[in-house]
Amino acid sequence: MDTKYIRNFSIVAHIDHGKSTLADQLLLLSGAITQREFKEQILDDLDVEKERGITVKARAVTIHYTHEGEVYELNLIDTPGHVDFHYEVSRSLAACEGALLLIDAFQGVQAQSVANAYAAIEADLSIITVVNKIDLPVTRIEEVLEEVETIIGLPPDEALRVSAKQGIGIHDVFKAIIKHIPPPAGLADAPLRALVFDSKYDNYRGVITYIRVKEGTLHKGQTIKFMNDGSKSHVIEVGQFCPKMVSCDSLGPGQVGYIVSGVKTLGDIHVGDTVTLAENPAEKALPGYAKPQQMVFCGMYPIDATDFEKLRDELHKLSLNDASFTFAPESSDALGFGFRCGFLGMLHMEIIQQRLEQEQEIDLIQTAPNVTYELLLTNGQTQLIDNPENVPDAGQIQEFREPIAKTAFIVPGENIGTIMQLCADRRGIYKSTEYLGPLRAQIVYELPLGEIVYDMHDRLKSATRGYGTMDYEIIGFKESDLVKMDILVKGVKVDALATIVHRSEAERRGRSLVKRLKKEISKHQFEIALQAAIGARVIARETLSALRKNVTAKCYGGDITRKRKLWAKQKEGKKRMKQFGQVEIPQKAFLSVLDVA
Ligand code: GDP
Ligand code: MG
């Protein structure tokens, strides 16, 4: 295929601005899908994604479109729209020459519009601004275009106005892609270099590797070499997603498609790797990407110890199709044998949990999530901490470091004060304020990730009645005065309840945590002391008095916020209790930490 008829692009947008709808509309108009399939939103094919209206995994689809008598091959590489998946956005963009920046005609520029647009600019892509939902009864198209110019720096004159839902202006989108996005460069007879930008596991064909050919040509039947580790593999099939998998004889420069080869497990495919031919290999690999780092961890324990292997199988299955989810066995005095699971962020964690809940019937106890910390030890070594329980004695720690996120909020002007207070309360460092127009502003803070992961998003939404949006990016670790806070129940440390807190906050949090626990744990036949301690020093204490005769069982109550609903959905009741010494601790108690932020 002559590269002059190829275009590779992504659609970047804030969540809910209509990316999936536009992608499907492009497929519909090109005849790749039927009206019925359009209604079913084919690009988001996982249940969880549909339920949450987000696209998690990057996908690729090839669209054939005839323009002025020529058939063009347009490769759309889908990107996820949420903060947790930044790394997937940049890996998808690396396979493109252009991007459509899609913006809701009423909501205007939001936090992820800015973040994703910047990512596209950094990747040197040609960007086409597309204002979507022009069919809405109330729109602010002109203001929205001004916002794009002010905060992102893209001129309004060539912006398109469309309705993805009603199919208005879609042919203009095709034309703009063909006109404004440059065709890929690359010679067909150069040594092969193809970028691996995704992979997935298919029950019938095994590992499917998504590639974008940069130069050279790959034929079916050839032997390829992965430049990362030099491993070789026979190519059984090459093809494109149209959107179903359609095999072809070869993929040339600029083309996007898949390889089915003898690779056995997804773990053998490294996103960002370069594929070349075993014979006549390329000399240098393409620039890859940084590996995503898990920033949020939690423990998952089966209530019934005999479910351990079953849980391992389930976690393994989930990790097969999501290389950014990790898990490793660990044991807890309080909870027995379980797994420490690593996620990119809180949303990622919720998605995995939801999948786990949908797919199996293991009763789980989950510990409160924590972020990754970095320690500089007195012996000069650094250590990453993914479980508060693993923090060594204070004497061995020279520096306690926590992850810092550069966080951008876009909020109505009247809420600026509230957001600034919220950030100040969370040890934020103010960076800047920039107005998008007369009514809205972008505020940037540096915040400890640990302070934002639990409830920042909920707080922002309630402070701005749903109008505020945020986006964050980890910029590194910074030294902070952090301590490990232990919880003792009846004089015994419960390891699964240990947390890491800022020293200045320790007493307040300790006090409210033991109060909270007092509510969660039922009375027993004896008195139970609940204590929070730093090292040997007790900083808070509550006493749960002994059960007297004729006292009816205590009801669990309390407020359940949006985030906890998911856990609350988990069957409550007797099964979700852990016997700890003489004391029964319910599942909810292990999440109490979340309620005392
Ligand atoms: P994504 O999160 O960016 O993928 O957004 P979706 O494509 O899932 O769309 C989010 C919501 O906006 C859905 O309810 C769509 O039906 C709706 N939507 C998308 N495009 C339009 C449009 O052009 N007009 C209107 N009125 N609604 C739209
Ligand atoms: Mg979507």
UniProtKB/TrEMBL annotation:
GO terms for molecular function: GTP binding; GTPase activity; ribosome binding; translation elongation factor activity. It is found in: Cell membrane. It is a peripheral membrane protein. GO terms for biological process: positive regulation of translation. InterPro entries: EF-4, EFG_III/V, EFG_V-like, EFTu-like_2, LepA_C_sf, LepA_CTD, LepA_IV, P-loop_NTPase. Belongs to the TRAFAC class translation factor GTPase superfamily. Classic translation factor GTPase family. LepA subfamily. Belongs to the GTP-binding elongation factor family. LepA subfamily. This is Elongation factor 4. The lineage of its organism: Bacteria, Pseudomonadati, Planctomycetota, Planctomycetia, Planctomycetales. The gene is lepA.
